[in-house]
Amino acid sequence: MQYKSCTPADIDFLYSHVSSILPGRASVTDKSFMSVPIITALNIHKDEINTIGAERFARENNQELIDFYSDESMDSRNCQTNYQTIQKVSKKFVKLNNISDEL
Hints:
This protein has a domain at about 5-70. The radius of gyration is 23 Å and the shape is flat. It has helices at about 10-15, 45-60, 80-90. The two termini are about 45 Å apart. It contains three helices and no strands. The protein is mostly helical and about 100 residues long.
């Protein structure tokens, strides 16, 4: 939900679903929140919730969870123009004029 497009009723609805540790209030630790999307204000909170969920999923399904680091920063020397990218990608495809009926 984009904030500017929310009605007062939308805001009330969202506030009614804020996680809490108070008795009688909804909490992300409840079983009903195990596999649902959760909206967070900060990505660091979302990342931690996803980590906990991935660990739980792996444990429940007897799977090994493999952690890896991804550096998503870009260096301007590595940037390509759209034209350069199109040229590289187009060289990897072969144009077929017809496809056999056997396929």
